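Q: what sequence does this backbone want?
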């Protein structure tokens, strides 16, 4: 497993094509993993673009991956507008039960409901639709639910001690030849958590990420000593 720190200049035309939306950014990041398409193995990419710019208009992107990336392949397209630190190997990452950690997580809190217009899928069943949770208490409740069961029947291995919520609003992306745009509502969670089951925490929360919309920059769990 590897952790990379990338920098993109926001006022450069070449790099703007890359970071203009999480959809474009994810497509660009995949170019650094040529074995991803050749082997059809999961690259295990989780990423987050930090919203805050430095004084020289550079934005930071953190990328966690199971495969080792070759960022020179992306630099060929963006030139001097793209910089990166050498990928850091974190395969020996270890946690212990009871350990307290500061965390940051961009997420897409949602709930699933029956289609209001009664549209049906190929099986003739009413479609299930994802809708965003917009109230802060709903968003925190969503994260609390994830700490109990990160995926059906699977423990997350952690417990939230404290958390603040930064609502980042919506972003939209319209694919070619599609009338309805992709719409994602994101929230940034920051706080302190306690590791309860170290193995589940590493394998399920850290490696696989939390919640939906991972291809759009959500789910990466960043950690630091509390």
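A:
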């Amino acid at each position: 497993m590897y952790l990379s720190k990338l920098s993109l200049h926001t006022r450069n035309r070449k790099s703007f094509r890359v970071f203009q939306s999480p959809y474009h950014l994810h497509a660009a990041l995949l170019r650094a993993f040529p074995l991803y398409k050749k082997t059809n193995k999961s690259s295990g990419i989780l990423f987050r673009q930090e919203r805050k710019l430095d004084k020289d208009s550079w934005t930071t992107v953190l990328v966690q991956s199971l495969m080792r990336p070759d960022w020179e392949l992306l630099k060929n397209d963006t030139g001097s507008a793209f910089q990166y630190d050498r990928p850091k190997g974190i395969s020996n990452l270890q946690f212990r039960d009871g350990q307290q950690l500061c965390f940051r997580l961009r997420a897409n809190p949602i709930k699933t409901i029956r289609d209001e217009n009664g549209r049906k899928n190929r099986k003739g069943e009413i479609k299930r639709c994802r809708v965003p949770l917009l109230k802060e208490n709903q968003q925190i409740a969503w994260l609390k639910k994830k700490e109990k069961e990160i995926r059906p029947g699977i423990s997350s291995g952690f417990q939230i001690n404290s958390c603040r919520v930064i609502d980042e609003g919506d972003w939209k992306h319209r694919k070619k030849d599609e009338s309805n745009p992709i719409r994602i509502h994101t929230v940034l969670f920051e706080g302190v958590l306690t590791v309860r089951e170290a193995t589940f925490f590493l394998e399920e929360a850290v490696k696989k990420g939390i919640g939906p919309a991972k291809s759009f920059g959500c789910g990466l769990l960043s950690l630091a000593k509390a």
